[in-house]
Write a structure and sequence with these properties.
Elements: H1 3-19, E1 45-51, H2 57-66, E2 70-76, H3 83-94, E3 100-104, H4 108-113, H5 134-138, E4 141-142, E5 145-146, E6 149-153, E7 156-161, H6 162-167, H7 176-188, H8 201-211, E8 216-219, E9 222-225, H9 230-244, H10 256-264, E10 269-273, H11 276-283, E11 291-295, E12 312-316, H12 323-335, H13 337-346, E13 350-351, H14 375-382, H15 395-412, H16 416-433, E14 438-440
Parallel strand pairs: 1-2, 1-3, 9-14
Antiparallel strand pairs: 3-12, 4-5, 6-12, 6-13, 7-10, 7-11, 8-9
């Protein structure tokens, strides 16, 4: 067994042990023996930063004006179907990753498998813990190691065309049963309430999260995977029923055909996340004033169960030449009020920082939502997210497998439960292939 494989096992196996209440063992920055370098006083350097966040250039430009000795160069990467992560993993394998990268909460463990991220704890990252929402900080913490600085979360809600719902006398659905009833009415009017996007494993995970699913747990140093647990089956059954009765479309979301449907009213709502305000306003400007945000429908009336779609960090790659400067930038980017204001203006999501902004400041597209203080909807959702949910290794591959399997199921008529069974089996094989201890839950 190579030293790399042993290191990957120690990191993720230790993470499993930690989650079960044991100490993390054998975790380090990499196996090339290179110590972080200190920038000399007056030395000028340039850090590279790969990101897809809209408007990220503005806070970076502000940093560069204020820090002439530590310049940051942004390279935009595509976030469509995981292209950004494929590029990052390839760069790590080739030995030439950037200094910093935008990495979502769910895929941080996957980069540990590649020895791709630097442990920021020796650089003093833990002293910044109190600046961030607790559960979001913990998404990148394994034992005493800190692998990224949280940037934003994505509490989920329902965006809907209020003008169409009112015209058709359809109330905003408070439960998933009411959502189904609304879907029937909307369809009779010649439109669709939504699309079940087969390749969007990220959103499907959020819906399972809301239903009470637990995809990853641990026992000792063993990862327990249960992608086909009862709450996830409930979600799969529900959406399969809507699909089979042709009450929802099945086109991919956030692509041209879907945007056209939003622009024309062919799709009248979207189960999305807080960052969806900028996406809708930017791609359906002709519908300004017609949209509203509402809480995510509940499985049982009166409940307040919510979940998160996405959520990003700013991570420092293991081969960063000047990691202390990279850490300083990552913390400033995600905590400085002036940076947060610029990120909010670009529509990057719900800040992970505890301070430096007001919820009302997030209503950047208030006019698009008819004057609604819509960010309160997502603030309330974020306050009720099940914070016990944790991600495991290989989620980027898991999303690809879910997308392939759901696409196949739509084509051949196989059940959505069969999708879960198939992807559960594949995921167990994937993790075993990485040298991890894993069992089916």
């Amino acid at each position: 067994m190579t030293s790399n494989a042993m290191h990957r096992r120690s990191v993720l196996g230790g993470a499993a042990a930690l989650a079960a209440g044991f100490a993390l063992a054998g975790c380090g920055d990499g196996d090339d023996g290179r110590a972080p370098e200190e920038r000399k006083k007056g030395q000028r350097i340039t850090l590279t930063f790969w990101s897809w966040v809209p408007g990220i250039d503005k806070p970076v430009d502000l940093w560069n004006r204020r820090n002439p000795d530590v310049q940051v160069k942004v390279e935009k990467v595509s976030a469509v179907n995981g292209q950004q992560y494929a590029k990052m993993h390839a760069a790590i394998k080739a030995g030439n990753p950037p200094d910093l990268g935008q990495i979502e909460f769910p895929v941080v463990p996957s980069f540990l498998l590649d020895n791709g991220l630097l442990d920021l704890a020796p650089l003093g990252a833990a002293r910044h813990k109190g600046k961030f929402v607790g559960w979001q900080w913990q998404q990148s913490v394994f034992g005493k190691s800190v692998y990224a600085i949280p940037q934003a979360s994505g509490p989920m809600g329902l965006f809907l065309r209020r003008d169409l719902f009112e015209r058709w006398d359809v109330p905003a659905p408070r439960t998933w049963d009411e959502y189904e009833t609304a879907a029937k009415t909307v369809r009779r009017k010649g439109a669709w309430i939504e699309t079940f996007a087969p390749t969007n494993g990220n959103r499907f995970a959020g819906l399972a999260w809301q239903a009470g699913a637990t995809w990853y747990t641990t026992h000792g140093d063993t990862w327990i995977v249960r992608l086909d647990d009862e709450p996830t089956r409930r979600v799969a059954d529900y959406w399969e029923s809507l699909v089979r009765r042709k009450l929802v479309k099945t086109i991919p979301d956030r692509q041209n055909a879907w945007y056209k449907d939003l622009q024309t009213g062919a799709i009248a709502s979207w189960v999305g996340a807080s960052w969806g305000d900028a996406l809708l306003a930017g791609n359906a400007p002709g519908t300004k004033g017609k949209w509203r945000a509402a809480p995510l429908p509940q499985w049982k009336a009166g409940e307040a169960a919510f979940a998160n779609w996405g959520g990003s960090t700013t991570a420092v790659f293991a081969k960063a030449r000047y990691p202390k400067d990279a850490l300083d930038f990552a913390v400033w980017l995600n905590t400085a009020p002036e940076s947060i204001a610029l990120l909010i203006d670009g529509g990057y999501g719900f800040p992970s920082a505890k301070e430096g902004y007001a919820t009302t400041a997030l209503d950047v597209d208030k006019g698009f939502f008819g004057g609604q203080a819509y960010s309160k909807v997502f603030a309330d959702a974020g306050a009720h997210v099940d914070t016990s949910w944790r991600w495991g290794p290989g989620v980027d591959t898991l999303y690809q497998r879910l997308g392939d399997a759901f696409t196949d199921a739509l084509a051949d008529g196989s059940s959505f439960r069969a999708v879960l069974t198939k992807v559960q089996r594949q995921t167990l094989g994937d993790l075993k292939g990485k040298g991890l201890k894993v069992e089916s839950g």
